[in-house]
Design brief:
280 residues, mainly beta, 11-stranded antiparallel β-sheet, 4-stranded antiparallel β-sheet, 42% strand
Length: 280
């Protein structure tokens, strides 16, 4: 598969399962609530803990094993401080469900003690804005757990925070870049800036011959162009797909089953937009 952008690509997700109300890697506003009461939990030995409440979800669908982005920084109002983390690179960071009985998988995309850190947390169930989880820190001599925030339904997740984009799933479908420059100007962490011929090549896999219900999505920052501009695709005849902007007006479209299907939405330039295609 080729991840190919006419301008900048920050996140790219491929999941061969239907996502209805929201698409993958949801960015929600959240609040770190102050000190919690003493109660039995799986991380009782950690020195610090806070409740995280999510305020941005207002749909009727329950999201299961869903990756949510948590952004951490020094904040006296909530009590989080990097100085209280006792293992390197966030190794003592942990998350649990609302009952504090089950650990939640997470991925630290970026750990920056001088700014914001980006952590994807796999929430078991998200049903409403009233749901919550817990975050813990402050435990010595421990390393990050091996659990993955992206379940087996994901064919690949590329944060595009490296020139040769790494796949964050256990599939390890990492990319090899050509004419690509890493830039700091992404929605989350960095982004890849592509020249006209730039691309990130991922080795072919049967997983990219998508059929049934699936979703493709990405954060893109489009520039003016006089030609077709691809986002991602397999270019594999009738069994392949191309997710792209198709003309000078940057109309979002998908090529699948040897047919172009247009969204009739023209993507504006010089602004980050989250675009997705869902087949059901």
């Amino acid at each position: 598969m080729v991840l190919q952008s006419f301008s900048r690509l920050n996140k790219c997700y491929s999941k061969p399962r239907l996502c209805r109300s929201f698409c993958h890697g949801l960015l929600l506003s959240f609040v770190l609530v102050g000190s919690i009461g003493v109660q039995a939990g799986i991380y009782d030995e950690w020195a610090h803990s806070r409740k995280i409440t999510f305020q941005g979800y207002d749909k009727t669908e329950t999201l299961t094993n869903f990756p949510l982005l948590v952004i951490l920084s020094n904040d006296t109002a909530t009590g989080f401080a990097y100085a209280d983390c006792l293992s390197t690179n966030g190794g003592d960071l942990r998350f649990s469900n609302s009952n504090q009985t089950s650990a939640l998988n997470h991925e630290i995309e970026k750990w920056d003690t001088n700014g914001s850190s980006y952590v994807w947390v796999q929430v078991t169930n998200l049903t409403s804005a009233g749901d919550y989880i817990y975050v813990y820190w402050g435990y010595t001599n421990t390393t990050a757990p091996t659990g993955n925030a992206w379940d087996s339904n994901y064919a690949g997740v590329w944060h595009m925070a490296q020139t040769n984009a790494l796949d964050s799933t256990t599939n390890a479908r990492n990319g090899a870049a050509s004419n690509v420059t890493l830039t700091a100007a992404g929605v989350v962490d960095g982004a890849d800036d592509f020249s006209a011929s730039g691309r990130v090549q991922v080795a072919d896999s049967p997983a990219f011959t998508l059929s049934g219900a699936y979703t493709l999505s990405a954060w893109i920052n489009a520039q003016t162009s006089s030609t077709h501009m691809s986002i991602a695709g397999t270019y594999n005849g009738a069994s392949g797909f191309i997710f792209a902007l198709t003309n000078t007006t940057r109309t979002l479209a998908i090529w699948a089953g040897a047919t172009w299907v247009s969204s009739r939405y023209n993507v504006p330039t010089n602004i980050w937009k989250y675009v997705a295609y869902t087949r059901n």
